[in-house]
Specification:
24% of the residues lie in helices and 37% in strands. It has 9 helices and 17 strands. β9 and β10 (316-317) form a beta hairpin. α1 (4-23) crosses α2 (79-95). The model has no long low-confidence stretch (mean pLDDT 96).
């Protein structure tokens, strides 16, 4: 799908917008242009349920004039559409308050000859092929066990896109991307109890997706394993977060050390750089240049070159997650994180989930979290949960309708193990995480 003509047209749109903004009196300007095309096919109970095609193109322009900022966006990237968006941005800027911290990232921090991270691998999948894969996933799930009573469907999706960022420093960066996924969700029944669960695989390269049969079988097994769930008595015990949930813990870390949280004085980790936040053995590294990874980028949303760095070393927080604006507010330098973090790698100190379970006399393995009870200002953490109860190193029963409570600051210091069963499907790459001494509210 992505042709040189497509890339060239988006770059031309970006440079046109900058030229119009500069000639109209903007001191600085930046523009992002995106193109996305995708296909999503859903099957349910052996039948094709829906086919969705998506094709989006958009341009967002930000201008700075006398330290006043204005922005506008449009899906019309014709010359007239671009001109209208730029004029609107300039008009908005004229009504905003001057902000001494506003403006582009420093010119010397722009990426020079950014590397190709191999992020573009079109699948070339059409409706029939996508439907076949989805049917294979759902069929594998439904045929695994007679207790799989219903299906919420299987979905195969593929998307292809182009990203362009340019600014009045003269920086122009463009790269193509792709993303593909297969998912399946089913319902298991035993007596009067119904349990739903799912599984999915996502990757830049279609050939690296898990086979659809494995995805379906895993979804079914997860649903079956939850049958017969019980409540447990309220207690204080270790909690094991499976990899797909453990990465959320480190997502809360990122929220707390973001520049916005820091300059607004709204974080439980306020001014925490240089402080022991985790156990001494724990290491977290940002690796933005991993080829084909889902969160890789050679430059951030401001054109700043990304580079690997230690975020946590020997348990000590090394710095914050900063854009140029938040960095100026804090009297620091941007960390190349405008738009977010890129591949946070949490180093393991233990084996996989089974080994961590075997090391526990009692524990709760959490496989589902419910609710939004996380306060980044105070660190207070309270989430509904479901999973499995462990006794003497073995799972003894599924558990539901419990609440996990603690404080993130304490939880970080009580991490006893990070597993080697790393989940690569998101921005944070980590394995299962064992946290000691959390309150589990049950019956």
């Amino acid at each position: 799908m992505q042709s040189t003509a497509t890339a060239d047209s988006l770059v031309n749109a970006a440079t046109r917008a900058l030229d119009i903004a500069t000639r109209a009196g903007a001191d600085q300007a930046e523009v992002g242009v995106t193109f996305d095309e995708g296909l999503s096919v859903t099957v349910r109970l052996g039948e094709l349920e829906s086919v969705e095609r998506q094709k989006d193109r958009g341009l967002a322009i930000t201008v700075y004039q006398n330290l006043r900022k204005g922005g506008a966006s449009t899906s019309d990237i014709s010359p007239a559409g671009i001109d209208s968006a730029v004029r609107k941005a300039l008009s908005i800027a004229s009504f905003t308050t001057a902000d001494e911290y506003a403006g582009l990232a420093d010119r010397q921090r722009m990426a020079v000859d950014p590397p190709d991270l191999d992020l573009h691998h079109p699948w070339g999948l059409e409706v029939d092929g996508a439907a076949e894969l989805a049917l294979r996933a759902e069929s594998a799930a439904r045929s695994l066990d007679a207790r799989i009573e219903n299906s919420e469907g299987a979905v195969v999706s593929t998307s292809d896109g182009m990203r362009v960022y340019a600014n009045s420093h003269g920086f122009v960066g463009a790269y193509p991307t792709s993303s593909h996924s297969i998912s399946c969700s089913v319902v298991a029944k035993s007596d009067a109890a119904l349990e739903r669960d799912y599984w999915y695989s996502t990757a830049r390269v279609a050939d690296t997706l898990e086979p659809p049969e494995r995805i379906g079988e895993r979804a079914a097994r997860r649903a079956l394993d939850r049958l017969g769930s019980k409540q447990i008595d309220t207690c204080v015990a270790p909690v094991i977060f499976t990899p797909e949930l453990a990465r959320g813990l480190f997502g809360h870390l990122v929220a707390a050390i973001s520049g916005t949280s820091q300059y607004r004085r709204a974080s439980f980790l306020l001014d925490a750089a240089g402080r022991q936040v985790f156990p001494q053995w724990l290491e977290i590294r940002e690796e933005p240049l991993i080829p084909r990874a889902l969160a890789s980028a050679a430059f951030d949303g401001e054109g700043v070159a990304t580079k690997p760095r230690d975020l946590v070393s020997r348990g000590v927080l090394q710095g914050y997650v900063l854009s140029s604006y938040s960095a100026r507010r804090l009297g620091l330098a941007t960390t190349g994180n405008a738009g977010g973090v890129h591949n946070l790698v949490v180093a393991a100190n233990a084996g996989g989930l089974e080994e961590i379970i075997a090391s526990c006399d009692t524990a709760l393995v959490v496989t589902e979290l419910l609710g939004q009870g996380v306060n980044i200002v105070t660190g207070d953490y309270s989430r509904g949960a479901a999973g499995f109860w462990v006794e003497k190193g073995k799972i003894v029963c599924p558990v539901s309708e419990v609440t996990i409570a603690g404080n993130l600051g304490d939880m970080f210091t009580r991490i006893e193990a990070v597993g080697s069963d790393v989940d690569l499907r998101g921005t944070v790459r980590c394995g299962s995480v064992l946290v000691a001494g959390l309150t589990i509210a049950g019956r």
